[in-house]
Amino acid sequence: MTTTLIVLAHPEPRSFNAAWAEATRAACAAAGDRVLRSDLVQMGFDPVEAARHYRDTGDAFDPLKAQETAAAAGTIPADVAAELEKLRAADRVIFHFPVWWFGPPAILKGWFDRVLMHGATHSVDERFDTGRFRGRRALFCVTTGSRATESGFDGREGDISMLLWPLAYALRYLGFTVLEPELVHGVHGYHREARKAELEARLRTVLDGQARVIAGLPARAAIPFNADSDFDGAGRLLPDRPSYSGFIRHEG
Fold first, then answer.
1. CA nearest 178: which of 215, 144, 137?
2. How does strand 34-39 pair with strand 177-178?
3. Beta-carbon neighbour count of residue 224 at 10 Å?
4. In whole angstroms, how far apart are CA 114 and each of 47, 67, 125, 126?
5. Pair 104, 167: CB distance under 8 Å
6. Taking the CB of residue 1, how many other CB atoms lie within 10 A of it?
7. Taking a C-beta distance cutoff of 8 angstroms, is the pair 33, 3 a contact?
8. Closest by Cα among 225, 130, 239 to 174
9. Residue 30 zone, left/alpha/beta (φ > 0; ψ -120 to 50; rest)
10. Distance (Å, whole) CA 117 – CA 77
11. Cα separation of 147 and 150, whole Å?
C-alpha cells in the first residue's frame, strides 16, 4: 500500500487550493492509498523556528545545533515530531499551495525550516545522492495569479520553474525525487463576468482531472538535478557536466 502525505498551505478552507487538495485526497483514497494530511493553517502550525521550541541551554540559539541535539536526545518539539512521523511514513508527498510574492506562503517555508530537521531528516553524510528519503517522491500542485505566458522563462512574473526550485532542491537535499509540478495559472479573485465563468469552468476541469494526475504519477517526469559526482572537491560544477538550472550553471 502506498502512503501519501498531502500538505496544504492556504488560509481559506473554501479556496480552490483546498478543493484541489481534497480532490487529491479522494483520488489517492480511491486508488487504495493510506492518506495522511497536514492542513498547516487549520492546524495552527507555527512556522517560526526559534529557541522557544527547545530546551534552554543558555547559549545563543543556533537552529542547526538545536535541531541536531533535540533529534539525538528525543526532545523534538511535539508539533514537529507529529509532522516527522507523517513524513517518514510517506512514500510520496503532494504539496498544494499558491505562489505569493514569487514564493510559497510563509507557513510552508516555515514547515520546511522546522520539519526538515538537521539530525532527524538529514546529516552531513546523508544528503543529496545519499539522502535518507531516496526512493520517495514529491509533487507540487501550485496556483499562480499570473497567466501561463507571464510565468514562462521569458515572462515578466519570472520563470515558475525557477521560483519553485529552492523548495524542490530542499527535497532533493533529503534524497527525494521531485516530479515536474502541476500548475494552474490565473487563479485570483478579481475575474468578473465572462472571465470569472471561464475560470470557474477551468478549475472544475482541474478538479475533475486530478484522479488522472494521481494515476499518472508513476510515469511522470522528474525535475533533473546534478548528481554528487558532477561537482569537484570544492563543490563546483565540473566543466563537462550539464547545467539543469540557472541556479547551478557554468560561467558565461
1. 137
2. unpaired
3. 11
4. 7, 8, 20, 18
5. yes
6. 7
7. yes
8. 130
9. alpha
10. 11
11. 5
Q: H or E segment at 193?
A: helix 193-215
CA angle 169, 111, 166 (to 5 degrees): 20
Radius of gyration, CA atoms only, the chain:
19
- Using DSSP's 3-state secondary structure scheme, residue 177 falls into strand
Q: What is the pLDDT of residues 221-237, one digit of tens each?
A: 999 999 999 999 999 99
Among 118, 131, 132, smallest CA distance to 76 is for: 118
Grid cell of 42 as nine digits: 487549520
DSSP 8-state symbol, 13: T
| Burial label, 247 (beta-carbon count in 10 A; 0-12, 13-18, 19+) | exposed
Residue for grid cell 524542490:
168
What is the DSSP track for 101-161? TTB--HHHHHHHHHHS-BTTTBBTTBSGGG-TTTT-EEEEEEE-SS-TGGGSTT-TT--HH
> What per-residue confidence (pLDDT) applies to 18?
97
Q: Which residue has the cell 498544494?
A: 96
**pLDDT tens digits, residue range 122-137?**
999 999 999 999 999 9
Q: Say which residue the cell 496544504 belongs to.
A: 8
User: Helix (H, G, I), strand (E, B), or coil: what is residue 216?
Assistant: coil
pTM across the whole model: 0.95
